[in-house]
Specification:
Helix content is about 55%, strand content about 5%. The chain is mainly alpha-helical. The protein has a two-stranded antiparallel sheet. Helix 3 packs antiparallel against helix 4, helix 3 runs parallel beside helix 5 and helix 4 runs antiparallel to helix 5.
């Protein structure tokens, strides 16, 4: 299947990201619509994930990949949110940045596999207590 052409906005995003090394700024300058810096950052992270395999060759040609990835990963890993008067870590955003970085670098989580019993039915577990060893259900 042939690769789809990048949209004008995506090309601008890549250009500005390569210039600034900052996802948030690149999204703002490329013309993405968002109301907060956090929203721009999230759009940038999604673009990076979606376009990563197309961005990397261009970045490597300019020698920017290591710096840009490290800079944006560092920015994302410091994500916080305000809860009343306290600033708290935003673990959801931080996790997304780690997932994105891993996808771009070619790492992926192991595939989840369902555990099934005989003929695709439920798994039957049998617990056997040894009363002689003192681990019986009656607390002996």
């Amino acid at each position: 299947m042939a690769k789809q052409e990048l949209t004008l906005k995506q090309r601008k995003f890549i250009k500005f990201w390569m210039e600034t090394g900052n996802l948030t700024e690149a999204c703002e300058k490329a013309g993405y619509k968002a109301t907060t810096k956090k929203s721009f950052s999230e759009i940038g992270r999604q673009n990076l994930e979606k376009l990563g395999n197309r961005i990397i060759p261009a970045l490597r040609a300019k020698g920017l990949d290591a710096f840009s990835f490290a800079n944006d990963l560092h920015e994302g890993l410091k994500a916080t949110y305000w809860c009343g008067k306290r600033e708290l870590p935003d673990f959801g955003v931080r996790h997304k940045y780690l997932e994105t970085q891993n996808k771009i670098e070619g790492f992926s989580a192991p595939e989840k596999k369902a555990l099934m019993g005989e003929n695709g039915g439920p798994v039957e577990l049998k617990v056997i207590f040894d009363k002689k060893k003192g681990n019986g259900a009656d607390g002996e």
